[in-house]
Specification:
By secondary structure, this protein is of the alpha/beta class. The protein has 10 helices and 9 strands. The strands form 2 sheets. A 7-stranded parallel β-sheet has the order 3-2-1-4-6-7-9, with helices on both faces. The protein has a two-stranded parallel ribbon with strand order 5-8.
């Protein structure tokens, strides 16, 4: 299959590119500043926030292969901090990369799949796209937006033989933790005494989380499914259970439990 992945420099993207290429698929992937290259994978330099880059990247794949069988929207970034201390510029950047970056790519990928009459779109959300995480509110918002967009897109494109799958990872040990941009002003720490310990706890959970190779193995199986599920939560059992519990339990009770978990 012809598989196109965004953001293959590290983490999930790199692990998926390695695994899917090893599976025998033809893999193309976008990057902004790759230094290490996976043999057999075609790298395309493209920034998800650039309309021109995105259009050219999709065109390169289609010109070379004539089709896109699977598109995986993985590129993303994260910011952390109390919502009131997060600048508008930071919030815009978060949404522009995570949500609008996906929208830009799909603006060009969907017409290709619609005309060819088939295709699978896999978009990365997060457990944070189901649960609003304290001190990661804008990251959660960007993932909630992906969930809503994909729910609508799935209904619109099913008539064309296009499948839309959402991936909701839990905590994984990747470079994402170290690259998170955080609010670090003394004013924020003083206003929210629980902020520092809470974000440190979250990041410790990430560093000791599952390995990206595990997720890549799951994706390897999903791309081969004739009728994949609408979404897959790839996480520990406890994290998986948190999603249905947040729906079943009264909101106030769930908020108390969740606040206690994060030391709020």
């Amino acid at each position: 299959m012809i598989i196109f992945i965004t953001g293959i420099t590290s983490g999930f993207g790199k692990a998926m590119a390695e695994r899917l290429s090893a599976d025998g698929h033809t893999v193309y992937g976008t990057h902004r500043s790759a230094r290490d290259f996976i043999p057999g994978v075609t790298y395309i330099k493209a920034d998800a926030t650039s309309d021109e880059d995105v259009e050219a990247a999709v065109k390169q794949v289609v010109d070379a292969e004539g089709r896109i069988d699977v598109f995986i929207n993985n590129a993303g970034m994260g910011i952390g901090g109390p919502l009131e201390f997060t600048s508008i510029a930071q919030a815009q950047r978060q949404m522009d990369v995570n949500f609008m970056g996906m929208v830009r790519f799909l603006h060009h990928v969907v017409p290709v799949m619609r005309k060819q009459g088939f295709g699978t779109i896999i978009c990365f959300s997060s457990i944070a796209g189901k649960l609003g995480l304290p001190f990661q509110g804008f990251y959660s918002a960007s993932k909630f937006a992906i969930e809503g967009y994909c729910d609508a897109l799935r209904l619109e494109v099913r008539q064309f033989g296009i499948k839309v799958v959402v991936i909701e990872p839990g905590d994984f040990a990747t470079g994402f933790t170290g690259s998170r941009k955080k609010v670090e002003s003394e004013e924020a720490y003083e206003a929210y005494p629980s902020y520092k310990a809470s974000i440190e706890g979250m990041e410790n959970d990430e560093r000791t989380g599952l390995k990206p190779e595990y997720l890549a193995g799951e994706i390897s199986r999903i791309v081969m499914k004739k009728n994949p599920k609408c979404s897959y939560t790839i996480a520990t059992f406890v994290q998986k259970m948190s999603i249905p519990l947040s729906v079943i339990l009264p909101k106030k009770l769930w908020n108390r439990i969740f606040a206690s978990w994060y030391g709020l």
